[in-house]
Every structure is written in C-alpha cells, then in structure tokens.
Amino acid sequence: MRLSVIVPTFNEADNIEPLIAAIDLALTGIDYQIVFADDSVDATTDIIRQTSATNPRIRLSHRKAGRGLASAVVAALPLATADALAVMDGDLQHPPEILPRLLERLHGGADLVVASRYAPGGWDSGLSGPHRRLASKVTRLAAYLLLPASKVTSDPLSGYFLFKRSVIENSNLRPLGYKILLEILVRGHAHNVADLPFAFERRRAEQSKAGLREAWNYLRQLWRLRG
Q1: Residue among 43, 51, 54 at smallest CA distance from 12
Q2: Which of 28, 91, 153, 184 has its CA 20 to 30 A from that of 222?
Q3: Would you say 32 and 20 are in contact if contact means Cβ atoms under 8 Å apart?
C-alpha cells in the first residue's frame, strides 16, 4: 500500500532536512511521498521547494495567507495521491520510525490508527512542564464530554495518525486551529480505530505555536462539531 505523509509546517526551517532523512530511513522499501502543508513565512518554504526540485517524493502545498495546522492539512490533500494517508508534525516530536507499524495496523484491518501518548506504553514527556500536561488533560476531557465520537481513541487530540482515504471521502471537513484528528473522528467515516502507543519527544527546534489563539480556536471547534 502506497503511503502519503502529510506534514504541516509553520516556520520549521531547521527541521525539514532532518525530518526528510528520518522518514526516508523509516520507510525503506515502502512506496511513499511527503506532502508539506506549509504556511511558513521564513526560509522553510524555499528549503522545501529546493528539495522537491531534486526529490520526486517531495510535494509542496504552500498558502501565502493561510494559518492553522488543520486547515493546512485539508488544503494539501489534493496533492496526496496514496490510499493510505499519514499526518505528523514537522517539529520532530513525532518519531518517523513508527510509521511502518502504523501502516501494519492499517493492513491488519483498522481504517484509522492513532499514535497515542496515553495508550499503555505511551509517553508524553514532550509536553514541557506541568501546565502543558494539565492543559492536555483538560482539553482531552472536554472532547470526551462534548463529542462521543472522540471516545474511540485514548488520544483524540493527537497530531500523529494514519488512515485510509475512504475515511474522509464525502466528508465535509471544516477544521479550526490544530486538531485535525478530532475533525476526522467526528465528520469522517472511521469504523475501526486502533491506538499505537508512542513516546512524544521533546521539540528539537523552533517553539511551540500553541497559545491563547489556539485555545480559542479549539473551543470554537468543539462548539461547531457538537452540531
């Protein structure tokens, strides 16, 4: 099964080359492409464009005025040509080496596989400080309380997951902010969801983009998805 790896990026210039190399190593023997869903305003876009000129596996979807990880992923979907689609962050907190294991679970009958920080064996050390861990627990609880569809996974707010294209066919995805998985769980057609525990790594370059704006967008997304 061919794999499209969609990587949303916003000012991740230092991470692009190491990430491409890590994905290439992890997916040895697998037919894949990487689609960068890019909203950057720094050198990130030029680095991706230069790399794509010599590497046919790399595609670039760039929005000059766009902002928001989730909507960037949706905008990049037309460039993703495989029947298996992965979404992972561009900041190296999501280990590419588990991509083959996620794909195996898809081959085994799941139609959506979530890389979970909270499944037994998972680890959330990449959340720096107790305040971010508390915020993660509160936002996850809010999703469980308001959106029953989110209860099929231990980590409905994960940014690292893999799914079959059929899950989003004829779905009206209208995400806000960063939580694209939550949008897919509610509006998509996933019938068999599996969790794969993973260790959420510390950020190697750039700073977290989370803030009050994204907290507000998350609340708006919850309210919209309730309907």
Answers
A1: 43
A2: 91
A3: no
Residue pair 183/174 in contact by the 8 Å Cβ criterion? yes
Q: Which amino acid is at 23?
A: I
In this structure, what CATH number is given to the domain that contains residue 95?
3.90.550.10
Average pLDDT score over residue span 15-25: 97
pTM, full prediction: 0.90
Residue 104, token pair as written in the block: 């195996």
Q: How many residues make up the chain in this entry?
A: 227
- Neighbour-count burial for 24-58, b at 16+ CB within 10 Å, e otherwise: eebbeeeebbbbbbbbbeeebbebbeebeeeeebb
Compute the distance between CA of residue 68 and CA of residue 180 in angstroms, rounded to an integer.
10
Token representation of residue 207:
């700073």
Lowest mean pLDDT segment, chosen from 31-40, 181-190, 217-226: 217-226
Domain count, the chain: 1
Angstrom distance (rounded) from CA 102 to CA 161? 8
